[in-house]
Amino acid sequence: MNNQCDVLIIGGGPAGTTIGSFLSQKGWKVTLLEKDCHPRFHIGESLLPMNLPILERLGVLQQVEKIGVVKRGAEFNSKSESTRRSTIYFRKAMDKSHPLAYQVKRSEFDEILFRNCQRIGVNALEGVRVRNVEFRPGDRHLVQAQHESGESTTWETRFVIDASGRDTLLAKRFNIKEKNPHHNSAAIFGHFSGVQRRDGKDQGNISIYWFDHGWFWMIPLQEDVMSVGAVCFPDYLKTRRSSAKEFLWDTIRQCEGVRERMKNARLISEAQATGNYAYTSQRAHGDGYLLVGDAFAFIDPVFSSGVYLAMSTAEFGADTVDGCLRNPAKATQLLSAHERRVRKGISLFSWFIYRFNTPAMHHLFMNKQNRFRIEEAMTSLLAGDVFRDTPLRRPIAIFKLLYYGIFMKQLAKSWASYKRRAKNATMIFTGGTTQLDKSDINPELPKPASVQVSEKKLTT
User: Fold this and answer.
1) Is residue 32 within 8 Å of residue 87, measured between CB atoms?
2) N or C: which end of the chain has fewer CB atoms below 10 A?
3) pLDDT tens digits for 95-104?
4) Is the overall model pTM greater than 0.70, yes or no?
5) Dist CA 54 CA 174 (whole Å)
6) Helix or strand or coil: residue 267?
């Protein structure tokens, strides 16, 4: 036996480094194994205001402020009127003490978290890929891993935490990973320079644009970099016959608002397409292990909830694992309570995400009002305030009633939208990646022709 520890964490992203840092602060001997080496590219660059208290407790808030672009709110742009937009500012949430967040390059952000957990005392190793986990009830578990050099190492640990992200290592091993039966989306994205930003204090806000096949994100980053991507119905991305780069430009041409802001833009990164965006696991825990962050579940990124859900659930996951190690007799009870709490937060986001592309949701976001504190509740949701005792239940319930009322009023369009979502929920799309030609200059962006999608191309 080469090594021993109290907790072994698989994965060195936001979830893994957060839970590792807090467990180390509680006095446990923690080993973290990350298959890649920092810095490495990752999508999901928009933080939420409720991330900031966690970053402060980790001791990295000032470092994140230096690499971030201030984000004061989220801008939603009308699908039917290209010049009409509605901005939700975080300062209008129920809790006024968290008025901003940051947009960050994930390569920089994740490395800050990784180096910080090393500083705190975690034995965090890079370039080490976990190959096998042997669970031994009543005894220490064995984790076998391989270094980049080819050397193999085995760790003996009391508890295993899967923070492997979309690799979902343990969920795949136990065959408990499930495609979300209610929602399915795919994405195509890249980094650009020369993209027009908003003026003044709004220049760091995320911009969301609806279009016929889904929605766009535009996330301003430092050094004239803009992250631009389209989260689409799989039936649209399955029509791709060109490179990811060409298809991304073709998709941009279909949204007038995005196209106008990108008329002088240039792609400066690899263009990527990815599928199977939404999934969950049948369970988040078992005898001696816990799944955290994307290793447990992932939902559509429209509300920028990914990093926040990973870090917040990892923080109270550290309390759970600490309790399991100190009182093994209560482990099942503690882990079950943790999973219920995680699922509750995810379900609150999910209801809105599943319906985001519907005409009724478009209407409510573009015509926001604060009767019964609805705007405050929605702003709190967008800020990530879903795990505290903020009084969201009543205004969110009223919002849902309004949604169903508008759904019935616009029944024909609403039903067509529902049928498309239901059809796409059963599709399989794995995506693909195309390397960027560094000499490629932005082609002209003429007005798009109508897109024809044949039934043959929709076949799964």
Assistant:
1) no
2) N
3) 999 999 999 9
4) yes
5) 31
6) strand
